[in-house]
Amino acid sequence: MQKQERQDIFKKIMGNYPTGVTIVTTTTGSGEPVGLTVNSFASVSLDPLMLLWSIDHGVSSLKEFTGGGKFAVHVLAEEQAALCKTFASKDVDRFSQCDWKMSANGLPIIDGAFGVFECETFQAIEAGDHTVLIGQVIDLSVNEEKDPMLYHRRVFGAIPEEFYRQKHPVS
Ligand SMILES: Cc1cc2nc3c(=O)[nH]c(=O)nc-3n(C[C@H](O)[C@H](O)[C@H](O)COP(=O)(O)O)c2cc1C
């Protein structure tokens, strides 16, 4: 199989793997907020609390994220689709399009997410055209009144009610 065909199949499988959506933020050396939309997010460890995501080497804020500092992962709520697009679009002043504040840890925190993890970088591992960032959680919060966003085949939205009426619960 040719490289292109293998990449197409890889993208087809990954694009059909349902995920949530996050926005990951940090600051520049001069304290300006930066961030991007991310769905490569995953859980790593419970003790201590660790998570990971991967950043494309073409991202404009690459050095801010791989510099070994802190970052915040926002697990988006179902109604935050517009924000999800904003943080994946060029030529937009992303932080003027949302309400946010600086946390005690010096991280830009966007209002209205389902959950937020504030992390210290534990390890940055270069892997192909991405760097995997493993974060150790230093602070976290959840908004129990919100529901998370679902992302599948380039569509963002709420998890449909009928999904929970199916007969295959884990326990
Ligand atoms: C649903 C979704 C998931 C994404 N996941 C990632 C990701 O995991 N890692 C990444 O580097 N870019 C990811 N991107 C792309 C970036 O959000 C996008 O390229 C962004 O514009 C990069 O920031 P920049 O414009 O400052 O370079 C994703 C985009 C979308 C819409």
Describe this structure as you would to a colleague.
Its EC number is 1.-.-.-. With 171 residues, this protein is mainly beta. The chain is built from three helices and eleven strands; from the N terminus they run H-E-E-E-E-H-E-H-E-E-E-E-E-E. It has a single domain (20-165), classed as Roll (Pnp Oxidase, Chain A). It has helices spanning 3-15, 62-66, 81-86, and strands at residues 22-27, 33-38, 42-46, 49-56, 70-75, 100-102, 108-110, 115-127, 130-142, 150-152, 155-157. The relative contact order is 0.21. Bound molecules: flavin mononucleotide. Flavin mononucleotide binds next to strand 2 and strand 4. Flavin mononucleotide (FMN) is lined by residues 21, 36-40, 53-56, 59-61, 88, 90, 151.
Question: Main traits of this protein?
Answer:
globular; binds flavin mononucleotide; single chain; two-stranded antiparallel sheet; 3 helices; mainly beta; Pnp Oxidase, Chain A
- How would a textbook summarize the main sheet? 7 strands, antiparallel
Shape descriptor reads: globular
Q: So how many helices?
A: 3
Q: Which structural class is indicated by helix and strand composition?
A: mainly beta
Report how far the terminal alpha carbons are from each other: 41 Å
> In what order do the strands lie side by side in the largest sheet?
2-1-5-8-9-4-3
SSE string, helices as H and strands as E: HEEEEHEHEEEEEE
Radius of gyration: 17 Å
Beta strand %: 35-45%
Question: What is bound: which ligands?
Answer: flavin mononucleotide
Specify the CATH homologous superfamily: Electron Transport, Fmn-binding Protein, Chain A
Percentage of residues in helical conformation: 10-25%
CATH fold descriptor: Pnp Oxidase, Chain A
Average pLDDT across residues?
Answer: 96
- The strand count comes to 11
| Number of discrete domains | 1
Q: Architecture, according to CATH? A: Roll
CATH class: Mainly Beta
What are the low-pLDDT stretches, counting only 5+ consecutive residues below 50?
Answer: none
